[in-house]
Each structure stands twice: as C-alpha cells, then as structure tokens.
Design goal:
single chain; 33% strand
C-alpha cells in the first residue's frame, strides 16, 4: 500500500454530474504495473469537507477496476475486493472519467506515472482530448 494521502499534493479532476463532491488523486500513490494495471489513491470530498478515501486499481485492456483498501482514520483498512467492470452509466462516474479520460485512453494504459499526472492536470489525456469521434464508446 502507498502512504496515506495528504492534502497538499492532491490533483483534482472534474467529473460530470458529480453533485456536491470533488474528486482528487494523490500523485504519490499513482503507479503503472508491468501488466498495465494502474493503481491510485482516490479522495472524494463533499462540500461539507467529509472525505472518502480509497486505494484502487484499473485494468485498461479489460475495463475492470478493483478496490484494494479504504481509508479510515489516516490508515488503510479492509481486504481487496474482486475485479468488476467499469460501467459507463454507473453512479460512480469518477471511475469512467479516470478510465476513459486519464489512465486508459482508448483502453491503453498510460505508459508511466508522469503521463498520468499530466493527463490529470490537463483535464484529460491528449489521446482523447478533442477526438471524441475517435474514442471507442463501448467498453
């Protein structure tokens, strides 16, 4: 597990229809495995300042995600969940945003951490920004 995310270095990313929540990735937690799995710590913050923290992974080629741990009291807790499909019309739209626009453009994993951080900061990966007609819509 990576270090628990702090609040200083978090990178916000925009999620359509997110309601009152804002979403962030801890760049220090971002990694890309040799198998193409992208792992990251996600922070979802409500307008009232309540935070939900999770450590997750994505498999780009199969469009799946996995919850590894939840944040509780500044530490990681829980056991890894099963792999499940990224659902385009899910209530958890932040996963679709991360998958499609940042970490798995056109179902290919980012090559390295720097590429993922740049995609987050730029509001999307260059392979998908402005090319909506070329993006495969079905997962």
């Amino acid at each position: 597990m990576p270090a628990y995310p702090g609040t200083q270095e978090l990178i916000e990313f925009k999620v359509d229809a997110a309601g009152e929540f804002r979403f962030f990735i801890d760049p220090a937690s971002l990694s890309v495995g040799s198998d193409g799995e992208v792992r990251y710590a996600l922070v979802a913050r409500s307008a009232q300042g309540v935070e939900n923290v999770s450590y997750e992974g994505m498999r780009c080629n199969s469009a799946e995600l996995r919850l590894y741990a939840l944040g509780r009291g500044g530490a990681w807790a829980g056991t890894p969940g099963e792999w499940r499909a990224v659902r385009e019309r899910s209530a958890q739209r932040w996963h679709t945003t991360l998958f499609r626009e940042c970490f798995c453009p056109q179902k290919d994993p980012i090559r390295n951490v720097r590429e993922g951080i740049q995609a987050l900061r730029d509001g999307g990966h260059p392979a998908v920004k402005g090319l909506s007609g070329d993006i495969p819509r079905g997962f």
